[in-house]
Amino acid sequence: MPLSQQLKDRIVNEIFPKYPTRRAALMSSLWLAQDEQGWLSDETFEEIGELLELHPTDVEAVASFYVMFHRRPVGKKLIEVCENPSCVINGATETMHRLCEKLGIEHGGGHGGATTRDGEYTVRPTECVAACDKAPAVQVNYRYYGHVTADKVDAFLADMEAFNIEGLPATNDLETRAKDMKRGQA
Questions:
Q1: Which end of the chain is more exposed for a tag (fewer CB within 10 A), N or C?
Q2: How far apart are the first and last CA of the chain?
Q3: Distance of CA 151 to the CA centre of its chain
Q4: What is the pLDDT of residues 99-138, one digit of tens each?
Q5: Whole-prediction pTM value?
Q6: Which residues have CB under 8 Å from 87's CB, separation 6+?
Q7: Cα–Cα dist 185/177, whole Å
Q8: What is the pLDDT of residues 147-160, one digit of tens each?
Q9: What is the dihedral of CA 162, 79, 63, 19, to 10 degrees?
């Protein structure tokens, strides 16, 4: 699907003037295109490249570097499970498997993840979401949730807000965390 003329005009009239070069406007242009279309197609790379006077391969290279840019359609709820050491040690791998099992999708979709047949959910791994003290951490449409262990996945899917960690203070109470882990409550 081509970019709307309205979006192209916005990029040219509002985004370009904010940057010293057209190339510098690439990230903002990609965000706007993804916001309009939900993901970034090869056609989108060509159109953005044309607007910015860049080769589409250069546009695609930037988009493929960042996990927040979607290279294929994603579900209405994009569930990303942190796969960095703190989260993996605290059960992120099991959380990922349980989410996929509960939603009826195959685990192993890689960076692009896997999407439910109804298009409601996409589950995929992501890089650190900076919530190590709330591991395993999960991000849904760029909102943060914590302590989403495999045994809590059903509760999480039923009431995500109960796991919301946005605005909570960071904790570094390793002694309490270690005790919780020994009791199997982490």
A1: N
A2: 46
A3: 22
A4: 999 999 987 556 668 999 999 999 999 989 999 999 999 9
A5: 0.78
A6: 81, 128, 132, 135, 136, 137
A7: 9
A8: 999 999 999 999 99
A9: -20
Query: In the chain, what is the greatest distance between 2 CA atoms, to the nearest angstrom?
Result: 59
CA 20, chain centre distance (Å): 29
Tokens for 2, please give them: 């081509």
62-104 pLDDT, tens digit per residue, is 999 988 899 889 999 999 999 999 999 999 999 999 999 999 9
Question: Mean pLDDT over residues 14-38, rounded?
Answer: 95
- Sorted by where each starts, the structural domains of the chain and their CATH numbers stand as 5-65 (1.10.10.1590), 77-183 (3.40.30.10)
Partners of residue 121 on adjacent β-strands: 77
